[in-house]
Amino acid sequence: MTNTVFHTRILIVDDDERYLSSLRRALRGNFNIVTTKDPVQALKIIEYQGPFAVVISDFQMPFINGVELFSRIVAIDKNIQRIMLTGCAELQMAIDAVNHGKITAFLTKPTPIVTIRSVVLDAIRAYQKSIATQLFHSKNLLTKQNISHLCSPLTIKEKEILSFVAKGLTNAEISKELTITVGTVKCHLNNLFSKLDVHNRTKVVAKGLELGLITSDAIL
Predict the structure, then answer these.
(1) 38-57: per-residue pLDDT in tens?
(2) Buried b vs exposed e over 42-65: b needs ≥16 C-beta within 10 Å?
């Protein structure tokens, strides 16, 4: 593998702090990593800090397990690739992960880091293919006239912010890029939500792709 850092973001969810830290250290040189110990918080991160290409999750966690987490993620963004990484693999768990969590890959602990990296790379490629397919179908279904009826015209600044959100930049990072306050970024983002009839960052990117307001290249 080269030393290129993939800008497509990955979320790792595991309530084992030591394992979470070791996995973050092992992968952060190759990928843009966000971590959390709390699966409920993970859902909030996906909705309000997305988009993410891949989610890696343990199975046994407090409040909701990894299968339920993946099931909820599918409802938020079906393009996100889901990797189950657990130390207590059982047949029924694997069946549930496939049927309900719609997982991309199922790995057992301990798994060599080189294997995890390879699986993550495959998952990123699958995510990119899914986004490209979504964009292809959207272009076939929507015309400029259709778009004008689906949403109010975006301002230049709103289009810029949509592009930065698609790349995974936070509000603070966008404010630095555009030399505006974080409050102004939030204002433009709320306008985007209203115009595209969505309520979070992940869905605004999905809607932007659907309407051809951003390209798949914008999030890679």
Answers:
(1) 999 999 999 888 889 999 99
(2) bbebbbebbbbbbbbbbbebeebb
